[in-house]
Design goal:
The protein has about 475 residues and is an all-alpha fold. Helices cover about 75% and strands about 0% of the residues. It is built from 25 helices and no strands. The longest helix is centred in the N-terminal third of the chain and has 26 residues. The protein starts with a helix and ends with a helix. The relative contact order is 0.03.
Length: about 475
Amino acid sequence: MSENKLTVLLKSLSGKELKELDKFLRSPYFNTNEKLVEIFQLLRQHHSNNNGQLDKEKIYKHLFPGKPYRDVHFRQYFSALTALVERFIAIRKVEQKQSFHHALLEEMIDRNADNLFNQKLRKTNGASSFEDDSNYLNQFRLEDLRNKFLVTSAQQQNRLAQQPDLVKAMRLLDTFYIIRKLKFYCSLLNYKTIAAVEKESILMDEILELLEKKDYSDTPAIDIYHKILRTLTEPDNAENFASLLKTLHAKDNLFTQSETREMYIYAQNFCIRQINKGKTKYLSEILKIYQHLLEKEIILEKGILSPWDYKNIVVTALRLEEFKWTEKFINNYKDKLPEKERENAYTYNLAKFYFYKKDYSIVLGLLQEVEYNDVFYSLDSKSMLLKTYYELNEIDSLDSLMDSFKIYLLRNKALSEHHVKTYKNLLRITHKLSRLISNDKKKIALLETEIEQTKPLADVGWLKEKVKELKR
């Protein structure tokens, strides 16, 4: 049985969640069809045993012994079970959010359960330990409910004793709106030109004018996103970057892990833009940010380090020739990688380390150990192997690899046209490079020009370096 919506959803659940789902499906309030529980148990057992594909006709035979398989009937059961799993996931999420408590408080108002409302309101704290926009939205919703209660309460003494604080509610709502608006605007600036964004950004000018007039340093989210915005609108102002980084280091503990990570990505993007302009000193700034994120575990998600972050950190450190630190990082953080991708990611980055150290024979041994399932790791691995054969002057192996690389590019449907073109250009120019001799200055100059003019092109820096070596 091929992957479908139901099996994908079940695979996304943790062991604890699967146990909770089992209880959910056995509850007569949510489900009265015992066959759905049986299907779930079969799928769960099959998944835990990792037995490959499960035949749908076998499931049907288990459910209805002696009856011929009916695909329509089977799909109806699967559809019903899928709907229940979706409901379980949604309910579980709602119960974890403040909106669950807000809905309960609103029901108490509508049902005139005044004493219960007051008890629940006292226990429901709108302010979280984080200073993100959702914190202010939650506080606003609670204040709004409190005001609604005071206005509609059947208890006269409540109305006399307390007055709705509409100013506080508006202030909380304004704070939420400004933070969220700044976040959206910063995101837009990452993808579009400023001119194109301005046409679509209603009230943005008014918010920016307000931010220039009023000091929001006591509201960390506004303060930080305003500084992020300045790094985007004034891309060459190094002081804006320094100010953002200083504030982030001082206040990054006030936000969720994911929000903090997003804020630092903006700081890293500023560095990348500077590097692309030739200001290579910002490479060290990116590495410092990575080291800070590692030290505070901001870059880890549930204790796991993404293979892409692992790779980016290694490449950044190697470009700075921080070999001791890189080797230590590769080994120390291997066990933080996702288990399924761990060995491949570790082997690839270790090969990258030895490539930068010019220990090409070790690189060959490492790259020949694995075949990468991830298409982009595979591309990087093949291009590194290509460069290694060139460095070792193994022209026959180089030619053989180029032939197989071309076939890979043609047959792999997961690759975009851009990526295919990028690596085809690499193969074409590497082939020419491997045929050049150092005293043919005319051909060397022509190839140098071709490298400058060819876009898109992978490993441009390495190609330029190899041409320069031929010119010496």
